[in-house]
Specification:
The complex is a heterodimer.
Chain A (H helix, E strand, L loop, with lengths): L3 H33 L5 H27 L19 H12 L13 H14 L30 H41 L5 H21 L2 E6 L10 E4 L5 H7 L5 E5 L3 H13 L3 E3 L1 H4 L2 H13 L6 E3 L10 E2 L13 E9 L14 H9 L4 E7 L11 H16 L2 E2 L13 H24 L1
Parallel strand pairs in A: 1-8, 2-5, 2-7, 3-4, 3-5, 6-9
Antiparallel strand pairs in A: 7-8
Chain B lengths: L21 H15 L22 H9 L1 H4 L12 H9 L10 H19 L6 E2 L1 H11 L8 H20 L11 E2 H7 L16 H5 L3
Antiparallel strand pairs in B: 1-2
Helix pairs in contact in B: 2-5, 6-7
The chains are: A alpha/beta, B mainly alpha.
GO molecular function (chain A): glycerol-3-phosphate O-acyltransferase activity
InterPro entries (chain A): LPCAT1-like, Plipid/glycerol_acylTrfase
Subcellular location (chain A): Membrane
Chain lengths: ~450, ~210
């Protein structure tokens, strides 16, 4: 045993030194810049290097696939059916015209009318717009994450080695680093806000609270290796306004809150989330609701209105879609936030899926699995655009205003603007939509029927 | 990604040469798996997960057509509880577009098959005739969305259309002659000279040209 002692102490010393070095590096290169909001640019260099490697990997796969004659790219997923861009009325007129050649001023019900609906029905069964929004986007190049390439086959030794190296780096080096950072960030947030909460209300408290929040969110951003580009920062939300953004994952909150000081709105959770929420509200007036209160729309609206009317209070951050969408489109905005009557500051967030898919498919993965997936991706790269503020015009109602904001966000982010409700992830279509189509068709037939009987 | 359930010729009732490429079949297979939630068969409830389909007033009849055994196998009858991928493809094949190289006989058979599919949609009690009640039923479904429409109006529209059908099929009827219903031969007669093939098909996007763009 005594013979092992010097060896033991050597190992212990080495371990001690390496841990100290690691933590010093962590502190100097990551945490300190986060506190002051500056950046060494390490992440950008990292991103460029990764891109070069991905390009090489993709070229290699293409070459390999050509040699083996494999079909490589998944066919264009934006629809597999050639749909006619004509409306219901035009189509039915055409069907009838090609049918009986009768005068078109006396439209009555014809057997052939059923063709149009039959064909439309079969077309939607083959392929529909909504269901494909709720599964993750498929990539055309390969980013060395086997989870994004469904066609991965063995191509060459070098590629496999590279992939293996990638796995090693991500799981054994990046993951522990990120977990350590996340831990630091969250504990600093909880302790920092609790401490600030003991101070008397005033300018000092506000100043400290703002900086504690910003610092901790910046540490969390680095914990995910999120590389964010902010555009048009002069349009950032101001006090007394509401900030709305499209929703792809819970990370959206961290991304936005690390660049601005917002009041959050949400439901109180249990567990770790609940602890964080309760600590945060001590330092700054966030709006948290109990689970029972969430159902009461009037209560929610009243509290939000109260908050917004106080001009000294912070801008509220809201995600009106109500659920996570896979970042290829923007779905219907719930009108609640648009009825309050405050200035709306729209924000568009678009993720670059090459480095890691940020979409949270809540039916497939729980929160913990999702966070692990995020922390073992290469990086989260996204762009944030701050759009100019919008207010509700006198002649439009809340729904129209919501749609106008939604279109602006979709256009800026390059996303598809859809009329459908994000709630369709879990529920069925409301009957009101179905009735619209039927009304149109029956108006065509009966409206003219009535005209004739009148004359 | 192989199509492990595809038999040699999945397009059985329409025995003309298959005009769907293997890639399109793969697409349909993926769609089938999505609808069936990775099971081997689909039931009626699985069609509830298509929001766009709710728009369609004759949704019930379309879904029913998938499970109607008269469409799945020639000379059979009744309703199936669940269908597999082969059945799914069979129904889809009623909506194939016409090919340039089809001869007269093939075109005629093609047309008859499509019209038969439609006939089965109208004839909901499987007795081989479209009665006045069944016709009314279809019209009411198509016009059901309009709350201002009286049931009587829908009925009178159906009756008017039925009378016209009778006049085409039977000619002038005596005062006490009763028109039983439209049989399939009468149905064919009504569509004579009318080009339906171009209206009752679904065209796939041409995949190859798009993939090579990268």
């Amino acid at each position: 045993m005594f013979l092992l002692l010097p060896f033991d102490s050597l190992v212990v010393n080495l371990l001690g030194i390496s841990i100290t070095v690691l933590f010093t590096l962590l502190l100097v290169f990551i945490i300190v810049p986060a506190i002051f909001g500056v950046s060494f640019g390490i992440r950008k260099v990292y991103m460029k290097t990764l891109l070069k490697i991905f390009q090489w990997a993709t070229l290699r796969i293409e070459r390999g696939a050509k040699e083996k004659n494999h079909p490589l790219y998944k066919p264009y997923v934006n629809g597999i059916i050639a749909k006619e861009p004509t409306s219901l009325e035009e189509e039915i007129k055409e069907i009838r015209r090609s049918g009986s050649g009768k005068a078109l001023e006396t439209p009555e019900f014809e057997l052939s009318d059923i063709f149009y609906f039959c064909r439309k029905g079969i077309e939607t069964i083959m392929d529909d717009e909504v269901t494909k929004r709720f599964s993750a986007e498929e990539l055309e190049s390969w980013n060395l994450l086997s989870r994004t390439n469904y066609n991965f086959q063995y191509i060459s030794l070098r590629l496999t080695v590279l992939w293996g190296l990638g796995v090693l780096i991500r799981y054994c080096f990046l993951l522990p680093l990120r977990i350590a950072l996340a831990f630091t960030g969250i504990s600093l947030l909880v302790t920092g806000t609790t401490v600030v909460g003991y101070l008397p209300n005033g300018r000092c408290k506000e100043f400290l609270s703002k900086h504690v929040h910003l610092m901790c969110y910046r540490i969390c951003v680095r914990a995910l290796t999120a590389i964010i580009t902010y555009h048009d920062r002069e349009n950032r939300p101001r006090n007394g306004g509401i900030c709305v953004a499209n929703h792809t994952s819970p990370i959206d909150v961290i991304i936005l809150a690390s660049d601005g000081y917002y009041a959050m709105v949400g439901q109180i959770h249990g567990g770790l989330m609940g602890v964080i929420q309760r600590a945060m509200v001590k330092a700054c007036p966030h709006v948290w609701f109990e689970r029972s209160e969430v159902k009461d729309r009037h209560l929610v609206a009243r509290r939000l209105t109260e908050h917004v009317q106080d001009k000294s209070k912070l801008p509220i951050l809201i995600f009106p879609e109500g659920t996570c969408i896979n970042n290829t489109s923007v779905m219907m905005f719930k009108k609640g936030s648009f009825e309050i009557g405050a200035t709306v500051y729209p924000v568009a967030i678009k993720y670059d899926p090459q480095f890691g898919d940020a979409f949270w498919n809540s039916s497939k993965y729980g929160m913990v699995t999702y966070l692990l997936r995020m922390m073992t991706s290469w990086a989260i790269v996204c762009s944030v655009w701050y759009l100019p503020p919008m207010t509700r015009q006198p002649e439009e109602d809340a729904v129209q205003f919501a749609n106008r904001v939604k279109s602006a966000i979709a256009r800026q982010g390059g996303l598809v603007d859809l009329l459908w409700d994000g709630g369709l992830k879990r529920e069925k279509v409301k009957d009101t939509f179905k009735e619209e189509q039927q009304k149109l068709y029956s108006k065509m037939i009966v409206g003219n029927h009535e005209d004739r009987s009148r004359s | 990604a192989g199509c492990s359930q595809c038999p040699g010729t999945p397009l059985s009732p329409l025995s003309s040469p298959p005009t769907v490429t293997s890639e399109q079949i793969e697409h349909l297979h993926r769609r089938f798996k999505q609808l069936s939630r990775d099971q081997l068969t689909i039931r009626k409830e699985n069609f509830d997960s298509i929001p766009d389909l709710e728009f369609n007033p004759i949704r019930g009849k379309i879904v029913h057509a998938f499970f109607d055994k008269r469409n799945l196998q020639p000379e059979s009858d009744g309703l199936a509880d669940e269908i597999n991928f082969e059945d799914f493809l069979t129904i889809m094949s009623y909506f194939r577009p016409i090919e340039m190289n089809m001869d007269e006989e093939q075109l005629d058979r093609f047309r008859k098959e499509k019209l038969k599919f439609l006939f089965h949609m109208y004839d909901s009690d499987h007795d081989g005739k479209i009665t006045l009640q069944e016709y009314r039923n279809v019209v009411e479904e198509l016009l059901s969305g309009n709350p201002h429409l009286e049931k009587e109006s829908a009925r009178s529209i159906a009756d008017g259309a039925m009378m016209e059908a009778a006049s085409i099929c039977v000619g002038q009827m005596g005062p006490d002659q009763v028109y039983e219903g439209i049989t399939f031969e009468d149905f064919l007669k009504m569509w004579q000279g009318i080009d339906i093939e171009t209206k009752m098909h679904v065209r796939f996007l041409n995949m190859e040209t798009i993939a090579h763009c990268y």
